[in-house]
Amino acid sequence: MKIGIYGAGSLGTIMGAYLSQQYEDVDLIDTNRAHIEALNTTGAHVIGPDLTQAVQAMHPDDITEMYDIVLLLTKQVYNEPVLAKVRTILKEDGILVSLQNGVPEEFIQQQIPRERIIAGSVEFGATYVGPGESRLTSDYEHFKTYAMQIGELDGKKTDRIVQLKGILDHIGGTEISDNLSGTKWSKLVINSTFSGLSAACNGTYGDVLDHPVLLRAAIHTMQEVVEVGHTHGITFARMSTFEPAAYATLDDIDEKLSTVPRLMHGSRDLEASMLQDLQKGQPTEIRFINGIVTMYGNTYDIKTPFNSLIQEIVEEAQAAKTVPDFETSVARFAALLNA
Questions:
Q1: How far is the C-alpha of 51 from the C-alpha of 47, rounded, in Å?
Q2: Which CATH number describes the domain made up of 182-337?
Q3: Reduced to 3 states, what is the DSSP secondary structure of residue 55?
Q4: Pairwise CA distance, residues 158 & 164, whole Å
Q5: pTM recorded for the entire structure
Q6: Which residue has the higher pLDDT, 90 or 238?
Q7: Fewer CB within 10 Å of terminal CB in the chain, N or C?
Q8: How far is it, in rounded angstroms, from Cα 166 to Cα 181?
Q9: Please, what is the end-to-end C-alpha distance for the chain in angstroms?
Q10: What is the pLDDT confidence band of residue 137, given thresholds at 50, 70 and 90?
Q11: Measured between alpha carbons, how far is residue 214 from residues 80, 209, 268, 275 in Å?
Q12: 3-178 domain in CATH 1.10.260.40?
């Protein structure tokens, strides 16, 4: 069985290292030539568990074989050329496992047949350190117990999903879900709210939680995502102590203002990857996070002013190749709250 990890960045490097311990035919595919050279020369180094594993890495242009399984980890901003390439390297009965942020599966189906797609959700964190190196930022025991969820798009438990679980279990604990779309939309509630506000305000999740204007904006953002998701036919999945359906309205907002900081306490120090992209002058996934909410909001004639403002601020900074000013962004959200 030949496995390709398309997008061997922070997460893909770790996945590639663990899969290469068990399987000989694993390729880490990336466009970063320095990273590829380091992986091929000195192996993949996973900081935290302190694992160094020999791997095979290559640029997409250098692929010569076909794959039974492709794990897709690239950013959605590159999906058009990436999926065009995947079509040419996936075997006739091969499967694409979508592990991207957001809810990309509906759009992936426009280029890859639905029956060849399995959806997935990554539940561990990692940071790209430099060529050949990635840091596991999640607790190791948690990672080995609960690293991913996967599921067929129709929720059925098939032979191939069971086989895929067995493969991915070599990375970390993998669960089969019968409602992965619900899981991914539940994560979208968190990402659009806290990753979105972190990027739009140039701060950590804690900065958002500690500011009364931004915390109130967060509740409004969550409500918009849940309303849009419900209208789109999504049954939100409970995530640990987080029940997204409870945020379908703005009722009991004072209780929510006290609950959300406790809910997100363990993530206070996080800084959105979209903010890190802005800091590097790179394109963000804002169109595929908050932009998905505003797109479906327009489709169903649901107003999404908070998601729209987050998207607007981030896209302005992206175009100017700068980062937002915290106080300026706070003032814009305060004005929206008072509108």
A1: 7
A2: 1.10.1040.10
A3: coil
A4: 10
A5: 0.90
A6: 90
A7: C
A8: 21
A9: 58
A10: confident
A11: 34, 7, 14, 16
A12: no
